[in-house]
Design brief:
By secondary structure, the chain is an alpha/beta fold. It is 30% helix and 16% strand. Helix 2 (54-65) crosses helix 6.
Length: 246
């Protein structure tokens, strides 16, 4: 069976949005250590391997916004598509206290194989979809764990990440905060700009408006929760777009 490094949904949709999900699955292709990173199932089900709940939320959001969706089909531990190809964390050997056995001795040839088979095809397709319309807004959907090992619990339910001078995201943050019942993180739980990441590559450097949504993964565990969040976020994204005059 031929390996597919990404999934797309609704490529013919003409809404002026593109929904991306960089960490959609925990799949390990067979060419990577026979499809096994050497981790127990419970670790492969954690946030270290992918963004639980993000893929389903992205699909629902794409339907509601009449927008195409692109999602990776490889674990972030295989190679991280949300890192620049020269980033030292592109191929993680230790994550949130867990050693990744199959990555421990990975060499430059292993990295190149993963770049060729997974990373580059995903980014090529993302670039193709982003370039279809001059006024597209890229919405990247991620999830975060409530608590990292040895760290205090994170208070946010949703975080919005964006670089300085971004035209759309500040309006989206304002719109979310106006809801009154959400704990909204602005460039939390992570910084909003990472050189070479997917948003930097396909949005910031191309002067495309964008936002990166981080949802707490215990709030999007089920399909019903994912649909509920997408249903709530879709009109707020539209409202923010109007406020930004985009």
């Amino acid at each position: 069976m031929t390996y597919t490094p990404f999934f797309t949904h609704g490529e013919t949709r003409r809404g002026k949005w593109l929904i991306t999900c960089d960490h959609a699955t925990n799949h390990v292709p067979s060419f990577v250590n026979d499809g096994d990173l050497g981790l127990p199932a419970e670790d492969m089900a954690r946030h270290i391997a992918y963004d639980p709940g993000a893929y389903g939320t992205a699909q629902f959001l794409g339907e509601l916004l009449n927008a195409p969706v692109i999602a990776s089909n490889f674990s972030r531990l295989v190679i991280d598509p949300n890192r620049g190809d020269d980033d030292p964390t592109l191929l993680m050997k230790l994550y949130d206290g867990t050693l990744i056995p199959a990555n421990r001795h990975a060499d430059t040839a292993d990295l190149e194989n993963r770049l060729t088979a997974c990373y580059r095809p995903y980014h090529a397709k993302l670039a193709e979809l982003a370039a279809r319309d001059s006024d597209v807004i890229i919405v990247s959907v991620h999830s975060f764990t409530r608590q990292l090992r040895g760290r205090p619990p994170r208070p946010w339910e949703i975080g919005i990440l964006f670089p300085d001078q971004e035209r759309f995201s500040p309006h989206f943050v304002t719109t979310l905060k106006q809801e009154g019942d959400l704990c909204v993180g602005e460039n939390e739980p992570y910084v909003g700009y990472l050189p070479g990441d997917a948003i930097d590559t396909h949005a910031t450097k191309k002067n495309r408006p964008n936002t990166l949504i981080e949802l707490r993964n215990d709030l999007i565990e089920t399909a019903a929760q994912q649909q509920a969040w997408a249903t709530r976020l879709a009109p707020l994204l539209k409202k923010a777009r109007k406020a930004a005059d985009l």
